[in-house]
């Protein structure tokens, strides 16, 4: 049965955030709000967490997971950035964008795209996830909370708790956080390709 944390959308209670972090660190899988929509997340060193996300969303191993990072310094530890990419991404973050980039050796091999050796990264703007990342001290491995038979991501915490109670360990609810997933920009070939148009304006990368 999943724990349910009802937190303030701008100033989330430290106790609730701390409890959610403990769940992540102990191998749990959580649903949490971002600046685009709800996401499923686990710690980077949790192999079973990744598999649970794949099962819940019915995805295959080709799915690009995202490392949700607290800031640019953290992001730079996990992906390779040249000067042009650095400037372009810096101008768009924090915000509702996911960037696909070549991974550094800091990223566990099992989290990489099998052929491209790439991984998704993003820096969200939502106050709750920013506090969660700050307390966690490392990125959260994440995927949009879009269920296999749904056309849109889930947006209400209590419904997520009701529907996924038996397959996740916690829900952080701070009210609705939008329907659109992030805009995805693939930089793996050295130039930007918008592969999904979402909440972020794609114009700077087209």
From TrEMBL:
PANTHER family named in the record: DHBP SYNTHASE RIBB-LIKE ALPHA/BETA DOMAIN-CONTAINING PROTEIN, THREONYLCARBAMOYL-AMP SYNTHASE
Domain YrdC-like: 14-200
InterPro entries associated with the record: DHBP_synth_RibB-like_a/b_dom, Sua5-like_dom, SUA5_domain
Stated name of the protein: L-threonylcarbamoyladenylate synthase
Superkingdom classification of source: Bacteria
Species lineage: Bacteria, Bacillati, Actinomycetota, Actinomycetes, Micrococcales
């Amino acid at each position: 049965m999943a724990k349910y944390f009802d937190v303030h959308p701008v100033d989330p209670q430290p106790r609730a955030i701390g409890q959610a972090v403990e769940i992540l660190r102990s191998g749990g899988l959580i649903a949490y709000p971002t600046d685009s929509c709800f996401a499923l997340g686990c710690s980077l060193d949790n192999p079973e967490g990744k598999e649970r996300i794949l099962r819940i969303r019915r995805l295959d191993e080709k799915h690009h997971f995202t490392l949700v990072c607290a800031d640019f310094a953290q992001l730079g530890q996990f992906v390779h950035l040249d000067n042009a990419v650095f400037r372009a991404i810096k101008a768009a973050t924090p915000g509702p964008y996911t960037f696909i980039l070549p991974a550094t050796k800091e990223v566990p091999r099992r989290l990489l795209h099998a052929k491209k050796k790439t991984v998704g990264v993003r820096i969200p703007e939502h106050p709750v996830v920013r506090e969660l990342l700050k307390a966690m001290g490392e990125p959260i491995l994440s995927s949009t909370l879009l269920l296999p038979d749904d056309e849109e991501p889930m947006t209400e915490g209590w419904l997520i708790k009701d529907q996924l109670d038996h397959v996740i360990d916690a829900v952080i609810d701070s009210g609705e956080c939008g329907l659109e997933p992030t805009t995805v920009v693939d930089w793996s070939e050295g130039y930007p390709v918008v592969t999904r148009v979402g909440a972020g304006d794609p114009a700077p990368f087209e």
